[in-house]
């Protein structure tokens, strides 16, 4: 049985909370982005067994979809998955359900990695500084791409992101050359992402420094910090390994016509 969910019940929180790392985005969007978020759940024998969440990032022209659960339950949820202009975050066992039904533009296997207090090894940096909304223009230039045109809506989203999340960057002269920050924060786990360094400034250890700054703040607040990284990004994986992150599971990023890649 498929249900459209509007209220976060204790049953739903318990179901999602059984894997707070994988479900961090879902838990965050249900709590903080209700006007942009739709959720459907599927039951088998009366028990919650799968869910599909759609988050409408309309200023970016993309819908972020999270699909998780038992394959026999998730099949019924696919009727609510947008066919175009969407990115689907799911698990390897469910990827064939999506790729077999929808036209895909890219499929990217990912590692889900995590660090905990006591195992993390963040490096020290005097260069990494906390960014805020006043740094939106510099941040926009660093992360600009053909899929994120620089219009006022996008700039306002950058300002909101920098004010709402924990983002650190490194400047050379007046140019922001590297940054990393949280994508979502829940009481159980913070998710780190958006790790970028200008090509001309790579090889200087900047990615490790900004990721370390976010990791250190995360572990001062919660017990676990996680991140997603493409399985073919060997350089990034080596950086995260050195900082104490360990692979805990796998995921799949499926692009449905946005041109985006992790």
Please, could you describe this protein's structure?
This protein is α+β, with helices and mostly antiparallel strands. The chain has two domains: 109 residues, 3-Layer(aba) Sandwich (Aminopeptidase); 134 residues, Aminopeptidase, CATH 3.40.630.30. The protein contains eight helices and twelve strands. Strands 1-2-3-4-5-12-6-11-10-9-8-7 form a twelve-stranded mixed sheet, sandwiched between helices. Helix 5 crosses helix 6.
Distance between the termini: 33 Å
Q: Could you state the CATH homologous superfamily of the largest domain?
A: Gcn5-related N-acetyltransferase (GNAT)
Q: Count every helix, treating DSSP H or I runs of 4 or more residues as helices.
A: 8
Task: Quickly give the structural class.
Answer: alpha+beta
* General form: globular
How is this fold's topology laid out?
Layout: E1 2-5, H1 10-17, H2 24-32, E2 37-44, E3 47-57, E4 62-69, H3 71-74, E5 86-90, H4 95-99, E6 106-116, E7 129-130, H5 136-143, H6 152-164, E8 167-172, E9 175-185, E10 189-197, H7 206-221, E11 224-230, H8 234-242, E12 246-256
Parallel strand pairs: 4-5, 10-11
Antiparallel strand pairs: 1-2, 2-3, 3-4, 5-12, 6-11, 6-12, 7-8, 8-9, 9-10
Helix pairs in contact: 5-6
């Amino acid at each position: 049985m498929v249900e459209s969910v509007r209220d976060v019940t204790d049953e739903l929180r318990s179901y999602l909370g059984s894997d707070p790392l994988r479900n961090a985005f879902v838990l965050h969007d249900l709590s903080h982005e209700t006007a942009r978020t739709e959720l459907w759940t599927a039951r088998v024998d009366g028990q919650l067994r799968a869910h599909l969440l759609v988050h409408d990032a309309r200023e970016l022209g993309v819908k972020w979809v999270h699909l998780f659960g038992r394959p026999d339950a998730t099949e019924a949820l696919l009727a609510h998955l947008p066919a175009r202009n969407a990115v689907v975050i799911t698990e390897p066992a469910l990827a064939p359900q999506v790729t077999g039904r929808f036209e895909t533009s890219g499929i990217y296997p990912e590692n889900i990695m995590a660090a905990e207090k006591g195992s993390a090894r963040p490096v020290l940096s005097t260069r990494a500084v906390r960014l805020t909304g006043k740094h939106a223009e510099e941040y926009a230039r660093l992360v600009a791409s053909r899929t994120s045109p620089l219009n006022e809506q996008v700039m306002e989203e950058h300002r909101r992101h920098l004010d709402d999340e924990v983002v650190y960057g490194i400047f050379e002269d007046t140019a922001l050359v590297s940054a990393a920050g949280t994508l979502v924060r829940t009481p159980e786990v913070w998710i780190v992402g958006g790790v970028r360094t200008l090509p001309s400034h790579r090889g200087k250890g900047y990615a490790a420094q900004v990721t370390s700054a976010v990791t250190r703040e995360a572990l001062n607040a919660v017990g676990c910090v996680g991140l997603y990284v493409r399985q073919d990004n060997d350089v990034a994986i080596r950086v995260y390994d050195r900082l104490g992150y360990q692979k805990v599971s796998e995921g799949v990023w499926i692009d449905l016509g946005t041109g985006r890649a992790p």
